[in-house]
Amino acid sequence: MSDVNKVVLAYSGGLDTSVILKWLEDTYGCEVVTFTADLGQGEELDPARSKAEAMGVKEIYIEDLREEFVRDFVFPMFRANTVYEGEYLLGTSIARPLIAKRLIEIANETGADAISHGATGKGNDQVRFELGAYALKPGVKVIAPWREWDLLSREKLMDYAEKHNIPIERHGKKKSPYSMDANLLHISYEGGVLEDTWAEHEEDMWRWSVSPETAPDQPTYIELTYRQGDIVAIDDQQMSPATVLAELNRIGGANGIGRLDIVENRFVGMKSRGCYETPGGTIMLKAHRAIESITLDREVAHLKDELMPRYAEIIYNGFWWSPERVMLQQMIDASQANVNGVVRLKLYKGNVIVVGRKSDDSLFDAAIATFEDDAGAYDQADAAGFIKLNALRMRIAASKGRKLL
Fold first, then answer.
1. Catalytic residue chosen out of the listed positions 12, 116, 125, 230
2. Of 66, 79, 96, 128, which is the active-site residue?
3. Mean pLDDT over residues 245-274, rounded?
4. What does the pLDDT read at residue 389?
5. Inter-axis angle of helices 279-295 and 298-316, to 10 degrees?
């Protein structure tokens, strides 16, 4: 283990990463640098500094990455209308490449030769962290304690912490039965009763949203202003990317929007049930498709829809820092040059309803689309030849006796 002199640890200050910190020092005989990111998880981060200091850490990084997270990761992903397996808005997946990026940048700044994380050997996050790390620093060593040690239960971790005087409270408070992960885009829940796919999720599990049944009886109307595919204002009030998402979370949660209960296919091979709260993201997806509906060319829109599942899979599987994701992103971003305008939404008891959209770059031409007299803007007689040409191959096949039924 002597080839590792310094490790940058993704550190939350909780039980797992506090034990990992001490375990790294003891197992590898190395210095540990801690990195704690504020991605909008809503937790106080100062205790992480205090705990790291109490454990003798000399280099401590605690950073507010909320704006970078939304601007450079969430917004680009939503330009593609990204949904994994038809439902999941990738709230956990999209946070991992930013954490991997900062782990490597800090390793370079501090001269560390390794990074470490607390992801387990069963999940997707180990893949996401490590693929990102290797893409950005090919020679870096990655230490994943959950794949090396025998501390495979919470009780063993607590015993280890107690034995080594790690400042973790062994209190009598009721611990949440769920494994949760939160950032500005979403909060996820796994484990507990959710491991029974037939059992209904518990109402008191949800943190960010009211239930649709108890949401206000009057709808909430909002207007979102888009510039090149990104929201820049809510109700004419200019906002930064992180502020936009935080405000949409607040409004959406108050109207019971964004709850999801799914069984997804993990990249590592197993199926996993998870519940997610993504109020702001749910609103963003609906609104973005609405503004694209009047500003994108038909074939561009259809091509984006064809490529989106592949793009979603790339992000879910941890390949954000891959050449194929970069290539797709360049194409997606180019498509957004004219995705400008305003979308008006009605939010009501868990529903996001588009009630209006307008844009100076709109391709919608009322003079052509009208059911009234279009004053010669469209010759309906042209449709006969169009239909016959498109039917030609089917007419030929039928004349040759080809049977379809």
1. 125
2. 96
3. 96
4. 94
5. 150
Catalytic residue among 72, 159, 179, 325: 179
CB atoms within 10 A of CB 26: 12
Residue 16 annotated among the catalytic residues of the structure: yes
Mean per-residue pLDDT of the chain:
94
What is the spatial distance between Cα 352 and Cα 346, in angstroms, rounded to a whole number?
6
* Whether residue 125 lies in the annotated active site: yes
Q: What is the pLDDT of residue 172?
A: 47
The answer to whether the predicted template modeling score (pTM) of the entire model surpasses 0.90 is yes
Half-sphere exposure of 16 (CA within 13 A, CB side): 16
Nearest to 96 by CA among 67, 117, 71: 117
**Residue 226 in contact with residue 232, Cβ under 8 Å?**
yes
**Helix, strand or coil, per DSSP, at residue 33:** strand
Q: Which residue has the tokens 């993704």?
A: 10
- SS3 annotation, 274-287: EEEECHHHHHHHHH
**What are the tens digits of pLDDT across the range 336-388?**
999 999 999 999 999 999 999 999 999 999 888 877 776 677 788 999 999 99
In the predicted model, is pLDDT for residue 32 greater than 90? yes
Residue 279 structure tokens: 């109020």
Name the catalytic one among 12, 16, 93, 259.
16
Nearest to 14 by CA among 26, 41, 297, 58: 41
Q: Which residues contact 314 (CB under 8 A, 6 or more apart)?
A: 320, 322, 324, 325, 328
From the CB of residue 181, how many other CB atoms can be counted at a distance below 10 Å? 18
The torsion angles phi and psi of 235, rounded to 5 degrees, stand at 50, 45
Assess whether 50 carries a catalytic annotation. no
Whether residue 179 lies in the annotated active site: yes
Query: pLDDT confidence of 405, banded at 50, 70, 90?
Result: confident
Dihedrals phi, psi of 254, to nearest 5 degrees: -70, -20
Tell me if 252 sits within 8 A of 209, measured CB to CB. yes
For the chain, which domains are there? 6-163 (3.40.50.620), 179-296+338-358 (3.90.1260.10)
